[in-house]
Amino acid sequence: MQKCIIAMFLLVAGLAVSVSGDASAEGWEDAVPVMKAVPFDAENLDGDSVSLRDYEGDNMLLVFFTTWCEVCQQELPMLSENYDFLKDKGIEVLAVNMATAERKDTDIKAFASGLQIPVVIDRDGRIAKSYGVQGIPTTYAIDEQQEIVKPFFGPLNKQEVLKAFE
Question: Thioredoxin domain location, by residue (predicted)?
Fold first, then answer.
Protein backbone atom coordinates (compact mmCIF):
# COMPACT_ATOMS: atom_id res chain seq x y z
CA MET A 1 0.00 0.00 0.00
CA GLN A 2 2.81 2.40 0.88
CA LYS A 3 4.50 1.68 -2.46
CA CYS A 4 1.23 2.48 -4.22
CA ILE A 5 0.94 5.81 -2.41
CA ILE A 6 4.55 6.69 -3.23
CA ALA A 7 4.03 5.73 -6.89
CA MET A 8 0.87 7.90 -7.10
CA PHE A 9 2.75 10.82 -5.50
CA LEU A 10 5.60 10.50 -7.97
CA LEU A 11 3.19 10.23 -10.88
CA VAL A 12 1.25 13.33 -9.81
CA ALA A 13 4.46 15.26 -9.10
CA GLY A 14 5.89 14.29 -12.48
CA LEU A 15 2.71 15.35 -14.26
CA ALA A 16 2.66 18.65 -12.38
CA VAL A 17 6.23 19.41 -13.41
CA SER A 18 5.68 18.38 -17.03
CA VAL A 19 2.61 20.56 -17.53
CA SER A 20 3.46 23.50 -15.26
CA GLY A 21 4.81 25.57 -18.12
CA ASP A 22 1.79 24.89 -20.33
CA ALA A 23 -0.82 25.38 -17.58
CA SER A 24 -0.21 29.11 -17.40
CA ALA A 25 -1.69 29.70 -20.86
CA GLU A 26 -5.16 31.23 -20.58
CA GLY A 27 -7.93 28.63 -20.74
CA TRP A 28 -5.64 25.63 -20.33
CA GLU A 29 -5.83 25.23 -16.56
CA ASP A 30 -8.50 22.52 -16.74
CA ALA A 31 -7.57 21.04 -20.11
CA VAL A 32 -7.50 17.25 -20.32
CA PRO A 33 -6.20 15.48 -23.40
CA VAL A 34 -9.03 13.69 -25.18
CA MET A 35 -8.66 9.93 -25.05
CA LYS A 36 -11.08 7.30 -26.29
CA ALA A 37 -12.48 4.92 -23.69
CA VAL A 38 -11.13 1.41 -24.21
CA PRO A 39 -13.90 -1.02 -25.22
CA PHE A 40 -14.35 -4.09 -23.03
CA ASP A 41 -16.70 -6.94 -22.24
CA ALA A 42 -17.11 -8.28 -18.72
CA GLU A 43 -19.58 -10.20 -16.60
CA ASN A 44 -21.79 -8.67 -13.97
CA LEU A 45 -22.48 -10.38 -10.65
CA ASP A 46 -25.24 -12.48 -12.23
CA GLY A 47 -22.91 -13.74 -14.96
CA ASP A 48 -24.51 -11.60 -17.69
CA SER A 49 -22.29 -9.93 -20.27
CA VAL A 50 -21.83 -6.17 -20.02
CA SER A 51 -19.98 -4.14 -22.61
CA LEU A 52 -18.78 -0.57 -22.76
CA ARG A 53 -20.76 -0.44 -26.02
CA ASP A 54 -23.91 -0.80 -23.91
CA TYR A 55 -23.25 2.77 -22.75
CA GLU A 56 -22.73 4.41 -26.14
CA GLY A 57 -24.61 7.69 -26.25
CA ASP A 58 -24.53 8.05 -22.45
CA ASN A 59 -22.34 10.03 -20.12
CA MET A 60 -20.90 7.61 -17.61
CA LEU A 61 -18.58 7.09 -14.68
CA LEU A 62 -16.34 4.06 -14.89
CA VAL A 63 -15.19 3.33 -11.33
CA PHE A 64 -12.36 0.84 -10.61
CA PHE A 65 -12.46 -0.54 -7.05
CA THR A 66 -11.66 -3.33 -4.62
CA THR A 67 -13.68 -4.31 -1.56
CA TRP A 68 -10.81 -3.76 0.88
CA CYS A 69 -10.09 -0.18 -0.26
CA GLU A 70 -11.24 2.16 2.51
CA VAL A 71 -11.95 5.05 0.13
CA CYS A 72 -13.93 2.68 -2.13
CA GLN A 73 -15.95 1.57 0.91
CA GLN A 74 -17.11 5.18 1.25
CA GLU A 75 -17.24 6.26 -2.39
CA LEU A 76 -19.27 3.41 -3.88
CA PRO A 77 -22.12 3.69 -1.35
CA MET A 78 -22.14 7.48 -1.98
CA LEU A 79 -22.43 6.87 -5.74
CA SER A 80 -25.08 4.24 -5.08
CA GLU A 81 -27.10 6.65 -2.91
CA ASN A 82 -26.91 9.23 -5.71
CA TYR A 83 -27.44 6.74 -8.56
CA ASP A 84 -31.00 7.86 -9.39
CA PHE A 85 -29.99 11.52 -9.14
CA LEU A 86 -27.03 10.94 -11.48
CA LYS A 87 -29.19 8.99 -13.94
CA ASP A 88 -31.68 11.89 -13.95
CA LYS A 89 -28.74 14.13 -14.87
CA GLY A 90 -27.88 11.77 -17.74
CA ILE A 91 -24.92 10.07 -16.03
CA GLU A 92 -24.68 6.28 -15.85
CA VAL A 93 -22.36 4.59 -13.35
CA LEU A 94 -20.52 1.30 -13.85
CA ALA A 95 -18.26 -0.09 -11.14
CA VAL A 96 -15.44 -2.43 -12.16
CA ASN A 97 -14.17 -4.74 -9.45
CA MET A 98 -10.48 -5.53 -9.81
CA ALA A 99 -10.80 -9.20 -8.88
CA THR A 100 -7.08 -9.93 -9.27
CA ALA A 101 -6.45 -7.55 -6.34
CA GLU A 102 -9.16 -9.04 -4.10
CA ARG A 103 -8.40 -11.16 -1.08
CA LYS A 104 -11.39 -13.49 -1.67
CA ASP A 105 -13.92 -13.78 -4.50
CA THR A 106 -16.73 -14.10 -1.96
CA ASP A 107 -16.05 -10.56 -0.74
CA ILE A 108 -17.18 -9.08 -4.07
CA LYS A 109 -20.83 -10.19 -3.96
CA ALA A 110 -21.16 -9.37 -0.27
CA PHE A 111 -19.79 -5.85 -0.83
CA ALA A 112 -21.86 -5.19 -3.96
CA SER A 113 -25.12 -6.59 -2.57
CA GLY A 114 -25.93 -3.27 -0.92
CA LEU A 115 -25.18 -1.19 -4.01
CA GLN A 116 -27.71 0.05 -6.57
CA ILE A 117 -25.04 0.66 -9.20
CA PRO A 118 -24.12 -2.05 -11.70
CA VAL A 119 -20.92 -3.95 -10.96
CA VAL A 120 -18.78 -5.96 -13.38
CA ILE A 121 -15.83 -8.13 -12.51
CA ASP A 122 -12.41 -7.71 -14.13
CA ARG A 123 -11.27 -11.28 -13.41
CA ASP A 124 -7.97 -11.23 -15.31
CA GLY A 125 -7.05 -7.56 -14.83
CA ARG A 126 -7.17 -6.74 -18.53
CA ILE A 127 -9.72 -3.92 -18.18
CA ALA A 128 -7.78 -2.14 -15.42
CA LYS A 129 -4.56 -2.64 -17.38
CA SER A 130 -6.08 -1.22 -20.58
CA TYR A 131 -7.08 1.91 -18.63
CA GLY A 132 -3.70 2.19 -16.92
CA VAL A 133 -5.17 1.93 -13.43
CA GLN A 134 -2.35 2.32 -10.91
CA GLY A 135 -4.28 2.98 -7.70
CA ILE A 136 -7.78 2.68 -6.38
CA PRO A 137 -10.26 4.08 -6.58
CA THR A 138 -9.69 5.35 -10.10
CA THR A 139 -12.69 6.78 -11.93
CA TYR A 140 -13.08 7.99 -15.49
CA ALA A 141 -15.80 10.39 -16.63
CA ILE A 142 -16.69 9.27 -20.16
CA ASP A 143 -18.92 11.32 -22.46
CA GLU A 144 -21.53 10.26 -25.03
CA GLN A 145 -18.84 9.84 -27.70
CA GLN A 146 -17.02 7.45 -25.36
CA GLU A 147 -14.17 9.87 -24.82
CA ILE A 148 -12.59 10.22 -21.39
CA VAL A 149 -13.27 13.79 -20.34
CA LYS A 150 -11.89 13.64 -16.80
CA PRO A 151 -9.95 11.13 -14.73
CA PHE A 152 -10.35 11.04 -10.95
CA PHE A 153 -7.66 9.48 -8.79
CA GLY A 154 -8.79 8.85 -5.25
CA PRO A 155 -12.01 10.03 -3.65
CA LEU A 156 -14.59 12.10 -5.49
CA ASN A 157 -17.92 13.67 -4.65
CA LYS A 158 -21.18 14.39 -6.43
CA GLN A 159 -20.21 17.99 -7.25
CA GLU A 160 -16.99 16.88 -8.97
CA VAL A 161 -18.93 14.33 -11.00
CA LEU A 162 -21.45 16.91 -12.17
CA LYS A 163 -18.72 19.43 -13.02
CA ALA A 164 -16.94 16.85 -15.20
CA PHE A 165 -19.96 16.70 -17.51
CA GLU A 166 -20.69 20.44 -17.75
Answer: 31-166
